[in-house]
């Protein structure tokens, strides 16, 4: 029996997002988001599911906070629905929308739980999409104005701010692959969306500092790890490109003020060019207080001419998979964290999302989600290993507190440590909840 021990100042938490849990999409003046539109577009979401009700956390947040209090978390990472604050994206502020988040934050603080607030977790006001969305530079200014309202409203109450969740998903998954809202399939569009997101991030960090806002600010890229199948240079280069799509493309502008040239040239070969204007890179290159990292999976990859965007194919190594079909690859978690430290130094890191999809249902009031429990253990072992290797990990927040609307997969894929019955909205703590609760309390676990 051995023990995996975490440092005494380790922070533990859970994460959710507005469109995935809140519901109440027409309540108290909320405006439409691109996910309201996308989820109601036939064929975009499994079973035609949408976030109209979701987990109804808009009305049940006190119950959810009581569950978190029982869990013993330090942090609750949630996101604000921009369309609740600015129903049209800009212009008139919706006080009822602000009131909801004040009630949420006040209740968290009353229960000794620190809020970690994500300003953008994909629910762009539809009114802004109607004017080009993130492809339109005006959306950058609209976002900074929205962020400024939030900084001023929650000064001293929210001290942990994340500008953007998973800019890769917002740009490439949503505008090149087309699997998420708004669902375009244009590489150059996706690159310009990504660039505008990063400018909005930089301008928001500048605003945060100008206002002397109490607390810390960062962003939360999602990363994968592609391990070369062999030591052949073509396999190494192919995996470098695949990794850089998530890492260098979204890290270099922030940490170095440039885009990775080898990727710029690769995209140019594909006929896609960046539209960088004077001053853009200086704006993006703002020092941040922490880096959020979202990690789920990885794979072994090798060169395959003409395969995908990067002449790279995934190699099936027989890894076990979760119920959503993603490899269980804890070594990739260790590898990517060590790579980030090697490339970007000692930036404080919070794991802002790590979790797994297992669709176990309650039996006699219990949910025996052994797969999720094993995934958690394996990835926390990798996390502790990375800390022993000098990675500056400050905290770990698992995705997710609740089963919820998993985007294009709808309600068919469950990531929660708490089961949600979508008919009755009843919450049931899973075995993984009780294991995570014990791990948080002990700050260690046995294997
Ligand atoms: N890698 N190449 N893919 C090429 C082929 O893409 C097809 C689909 O791709 C993807 C890639 C990544 C994801 C994804 C989902 N989550 C989970 C959410 N994270 C934020 C939070 O809201 C969670 O719900 N994280 N990542 C989905 C689909």
From TrEMBL:
GO biological process, one term: cellulose catabolic process
Enzyme Commission no: 3.2.1.21
One GO cellular component term noted in the UniProt record for this chain: cytosol
Swiss-Prot/TrEMBL catalytic activity: Hydrolysis of terminal, non-reducing beta-D-glucosyl residues with release of beta-D-glucose
Residues that bind substrate: 20, 121, 165, 296, 399, 406-407
Keyword Hydrolase (UniProt): yes
Family matches, as InterPro entries: GH, Glyco_hydro_1, Glyco_hydro_1_beta-glucosidase
Active site residues per record: 166, 353
Keywords assigned by UniProt, alphabetized: Carbohydrate metabolism, Cellulose degradation, Glycosidase, Hydrolase, Polysaccharide degradation
EC supergroup of this enzyme: hydrolase
NCBIfam families referenced in this protein's UniProt entry, alphabetically: BGL
Similarity remark: Belongs to the glycosyl hydrolase 1 family.
Protein name, as recorded: Beta-glucosidase
Native organism taxonomy: Bacteria, Bacillati, Bacillota, Bacilli, Bacillales
């Amino acid at each position: 029996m051995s023990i995996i021990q975490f440092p005494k100042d380790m922070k533990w938490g859970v994460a959710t997002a507005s469109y995935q849990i809140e519901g109440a999409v027409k309540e108290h003046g909320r405006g439409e988001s691109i996910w309201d539109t996308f989820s109601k577009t036939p064929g975009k979401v499994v079973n035609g599911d949408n976030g109209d009700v979701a987990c109804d956390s808009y009305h049940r947040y006190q119950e959810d906070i009581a569950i978190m209090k029982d869990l013993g978390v330090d942090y609750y990472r949630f996101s604000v629905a921009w369309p609740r604050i600015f129903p049209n994206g800009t212009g008139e502020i919706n006080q009822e929308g602000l009131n909801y988040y004040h009630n949420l934050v006040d209740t968290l603080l009353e229960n000794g739980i620190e809020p970690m607030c994500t300003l953008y977790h994909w629910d762009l006001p539809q009114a802004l999409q109607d004017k080009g969305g993130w492809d339109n530079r005006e959306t950058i200014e609209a976002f900074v104005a929205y962020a400024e309202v939030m900084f001023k409203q929650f000064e001293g109450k929210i001290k942990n701010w994340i500008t953007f969740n998973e800019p890769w998903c917002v740009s490439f998954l949503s505008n090149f692959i087309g699997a998420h809202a708004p669902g375009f399939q244009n590489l150059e569009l996706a690159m310009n969306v990504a660039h505008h997101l990063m400018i909005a991030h930089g301008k928001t960090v500048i605003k945060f500092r100008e206002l002397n806002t109490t607390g810390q600010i960062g962003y939360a890229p999602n990363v994968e790890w592609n391990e070369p199948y062999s030591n052949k240079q073509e396999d190494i280069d192919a995996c470098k490109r695949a990794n850089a799509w998530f890492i260098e493309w979204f890290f270099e502008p922030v940490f170095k003020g440039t885009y990775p040239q080898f990727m710029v040239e690769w995209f140019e070969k594909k006929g896609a060019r960046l539209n960088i204007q004077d001053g853009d890179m200086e704006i993006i290159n703002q020092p941040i207080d922490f880096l959020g990292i979202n990690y789920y999976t990885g794979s072994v990859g090798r060169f395959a001419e003409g395969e995908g965007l990067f002449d790279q194919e995934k190699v099936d190594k027989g890894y076990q998979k979760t119920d959503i079909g993603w490899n269980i690859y804890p070594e990739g978690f260790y590898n990517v964290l060590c790579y980030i430290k090697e490339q970007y130094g000692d930036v404080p890191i919070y794991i802002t999302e790590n979790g797994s999809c297992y669709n176990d249902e309650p039996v006699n009031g219990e949910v025996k989600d052994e797969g999720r429990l094993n995934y958690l253990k394996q990835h926390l072992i990798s996390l502790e290993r990375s800390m022993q290797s000098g990675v500056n990990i400050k905290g770990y927040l698992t995705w997710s507190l609740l089963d919820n609307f998993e985007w294009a997969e709808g309600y068919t894929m469950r990531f929660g440590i708490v089961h949600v019955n979508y008919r009755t909205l009843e919450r049931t703590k899973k075995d993984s909840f009780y294991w995570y609760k014990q791990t948080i309390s002990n700050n260690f676990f046995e294997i």
